[in-house]
Amino acid sequence: MMRLPKFRYFAPTTVREALRLRAEAGPDTAFVAGGTDLYPNMKRRQQTPATVIGLARIPPLARLRFGRDAVSIGAAVPLSAIERHRRMRRAFPGLVAAIQEISTPPLRNMGTLGGNVLLDTRCNYYDQNAEWRQAIDYCMKKDGAICWVAPGSPKCLAVQSADSVPVLIALGARARLASPEGERDIALEDLYRNDGIHYLTKRPEELLTEIRLPPPDGWRASYRKLRRRGAFDFPVLSVGAAVRREGGVVAEARLVLGGVASAPLRLTRAEEILRGRRLDAESIADAAEASSGPARPMDNTDFSFLWRKEMTRRFVASALKGLA
What we know:
By secondary structure, the protein is of the alpha+beta class. It is built from 12 helices and 12 strands. The strands form 3 sheets. Strands 4-5-8-6-7 form a 5-stranded antiparallel sheet, with no helix packed on it. Strands 9-10-11-12 form a 4-stranded antiparallel sheet.
């Protein structure tokens, strides 16, 4: 049986108190909301914070509000609350579809949007128990010096596998981060770095408090996910697609891949191909063809990486057909 290591736990009731506790406890600290990612990682000794600061008792972090200029989703809003929210289902069906693909209903009741957005990168050589990882002399991401996916690589190649992220980026979401110095607002796309270890641009002392979505304003989004089983599994390839049409042609498009790199991957060339064209069989085929080039999946998740690359073309086409 894998057991949690010992740690101190605090349950603040305000963001200011949470940030103060983090400053007092120091760098060996983790924030936790639902705990569906952090606690399993702690049991596997991938993360062993001495102090854990719970966010469940901070009311503003659990609010979902429709405003005039944006929809505000607190970082601690449960995934299932978004999944069941009637206005979210009407306004952002693509995002709701992505959230419905996350894990299982019990875990969506516990897991939060903020937790999914900040999900740790994953890899076959990293997501194992401590004894298994010790047997291979660990890996670069934790306690070792070699990336076993590509031993000559100077950086970790663990992948970003959060279901919500490709669609959120495609919809133009922004993230709000709080720290003792104040708040800052960034495009969600800028929250990620293509490095399996240092995969976030968020500073350790910062707390993700809110995800903001602009009004749909003609944008429609879809999501496609490749995994071995029909439920529970993380994506080994995912596609978030969003388009805005004017007069029957694509005015703007955003295509984002997940599960193929340490950060979400924008398919800018495929987006350009769609602009100014009708979303028909020809334009979809051209965009799908352009998407397979930038996708360079590695042998760090389920299935053959060559087959996953081939599936990129098909899944991009499927996501766009869902919008056509």
